[in-house]
Design a protein that fits this description.
Length: 333
Amino acid sequence: MPGLTLLATGGTIAARSRDGVRNTSDGVPGADVLDRARAVWGFEGEVDVRDVAGVGSSALTVPDVLALVEAARAALTRSDGVVITHGTDTMEETAFLLSLALGPAPVAVTGSQRAFDDSAPDGPRNLAAALAWASDRAAADAGVTVVFADLVLPAIGVHKSATLAPEAFTAPGRGPIGHVDESGVRRHAVPPVPGPLLEPGTTDLPRVALVPQYLGADEAEIDAAVASGAQGLVVATFGSGNTTPAVTSALVRLLDRGFPVVMSSRTGSGAVSGLYTGGGADLIAAGAVPAGDLSPWQARLLLAAALAPDRSDHDWATRMRRWLADAGAGPRS
Ligand SMILES: NC(=O)C[C@H](N)C(=O)O
């Protein structure tokens, strides 16, 4: 059995530049990226390389990522662990979908902020670290992680927090759970790893809208989301879970007719709650589900997975609350 499978999807780690502009849709194959990474710390383990896509991550769709999930699922039957190279722009969403589908399987996602042909690239070291992590016992039950800039971050809660800096990812309140550098692999925390929520073979997810809060927001985006066929809605609230009076009223009306509404905060750190009347308290009283410390983007995918078709149990809210509790993002009932 080969040690690892590398699934290459493109992104800046494979991109070449011309006149200062990067092209992520005409990148180098995974084998070339792997060669450079092997040179960093002399990784000699066996790696089965598969090029599954060759695009910037902003061009990926949910069905594309669900196809990647299936490729990772198949790879896990042939190898001890999976490493995925991926653009950084949507890495936090892909890593989260992988964790919703695969639970505790050892999958490390990485990429770079600098192009393959940069004179001081960060990609080879990031991939070297991901290979070292995924082939180490420490990764065996840690689930999906993002390995980047020497840090090992859990997929749940990971967030791209810098546009260009090589230290591109954080997971406030949740990570890093480990480090990989010249001294080797160190794991110093056990992340909560809920069991899979997505059924094997899922090829698409129901449409879920994301509605942002901003000074003076009214119900226009909510109306547009419902009119466009959304089957659920995540509101990126102010602070600890608040919304404008107009948005609170519109969401309570939706909840009263059984429309799924989930709360997440636009702050980037900490959990949402029902602390204030006129906002979070009213939404939770009407049946909105608070998504703990999940970002609006990860909460959107969680709701979509909880609403996914072909489930015998149709209670999306129960499924979400159970998963959130197992993820350390909600109360245990
Ligand atoms: N650093 C990167 O990989 C950004 C790139 N635009 C991508 O997400 O594919």
